[in-house]
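Re-run requested by the PI after the first attempt was lost when the workstation crashed. Everything re-entered from the original request form. Ligand of interest: 3UK.
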Amino acid sequence: MNYTSHVDTFARDNLPPRKDWPELIFDLPELKYPARMNCAAELLDGALARGWRDRVAIRAPDGQCTYGQLLAQANRIARVLVEDMGLKPGNRVLLRGPNNPMMAACWFGVFKAGGVVVGTMPLLRAKELTEIVRKAAVTHALCDKRLGAELVATQLACPTLKSIKYWYDDDAGSLESLCATKAGSFRNVDTSAEDPALIAFTSGTTGTPKGTVHFHRDVIAMCDCFPRSCLKPAKEDVFCGTPPLAFTFGLGGMLCFPLRFGASTVLLERLSPDGLLEAIQKFKATVCFTAPTFYRQMAQIAKNHNLKSLRTCVSAGEALPDATRQLFRKATGIEIIDGIGATEMIHIFISHTPESVRRGATGYAIPGYKATVLDAKGNPCAPGVVGRLAVKGPTGCRYLADDRQKVYVQKGWNVTGDAYAMDKDGYFFYQARTDDMIVSAGYNIAGPEVEGALLAHEAVAECGVVGVPDEERGQIVKAWVVLKPGYQKTQAVAKMLQDHVKNAIAPYKYPRAVEFVDALPRTETGKLQRFKLRN
Ligand code: 3UK
């Protein structure tokens, strides 16, 4: 690393030493990037150079904006950051708000000004925000006024956080009123391809949050891998979905992918499964990004909506049970594209096209990435043998000042913490998170497999399966089940579900305990919080 545009080198200085980085591979022609690139210049200024000025970029309930308008707004925000807030290249800028056009413009404004975006999920409270601000030594923030209270509380505890501007704010000093005084042009900071562009914090459930550093090049590389090979977007596509922009699944699917391909994105705040279907109908969306639990709930009510426009659906965040895939296809005719991604990798690295789906598999290593399954000694497993998933490609894990780098990156591979088996054709079959494997009376049991069996029963709306302590067996398999309307929380129904599982998969895997609940604990990104079920 020689040239940098960063004056404040905090993010660079706190990268792991280069020897601890994963091996990076750029063997596709579209991944041969120049040494200098600014991802916002590439996505926005580049879009105008490609003749897309008057195409719609963002659609929202209160109107739409073109590529030209989005670029101008991002430029104004960059000017506010530099001229009014004193931003220096390399400073960390916290962004906080639900998915909406102003939020999108802020992301690009920071990139253009050479700042490092620290995205935060809307539901985070002052305690979590404080940990993030301290870890990333955040200096500036742009925040939706409606989410301001927790940030005000955070600032009191964080001396580095000097400057905050709010939008959706009537105040004279609001971000909007400052933007209104600025020209819509800006001289992009000439960032190195390897200058940090964002620090994405993992939604990890234990320990202090981990910040993953991604470069300007990584933002573009994620656009040139999964969408290019699996989605094949067209300019006419309209993207829609739920993941927050602070979750890299959403940063790609809800913002960068559509813009990379001249398409448009529908940005909506806080969507329910019903609200998402409503939005697909209203905006004639063609591509949908959301989590498995949403697809399952959408399948039940899809018939109440006109989904003619919808062409492609992407599921990520946790394993897509085959039962959900089948339900959704029966309801809509659409074969969901499953994909495993990770904050450490920035986006999806194993996936498939609708035509190349294989039942029960997440997919294959997409072009640009390599994947393998490693045994306990770090050697590749034979086909069909369960081991630890390991991947490498153009993106990879670089934790900000964190010893856990050596846990995630081993011998150049990114080891994601997932137990997988690969078949002889290179398809990868998810088992469980490595630390979620249930060991009962000496048998290894993967919770998601039991969940998959339960979900195939018509009485089951949702379920979560974990191991709970047991004197005799060490652990037993326990299922938390949300029943569909019309089914009673009785012993008889529990017995029926147990018998169903014994018939569907190896009988020893059946849940010895069944508990009925009204809802399952989930993160803002749609992941089941297994640790909460275990406690
Ligand atoms: C799990 C999956 C099975 C898996 C993410 C797409 O989820 C994302 O990032 P996170 O850092 O979590 C990563 C972990 O989540 N997982 C994700 N997708 C799948 N397991 N099948 C899947 N399809 O344990 C992985 O290690 O929150 C997903 C794009 C960007 C992302 N950040």
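Saved to the shared folder this time. The CA atoms of residues 1 and 136 lie 21 Å apart.
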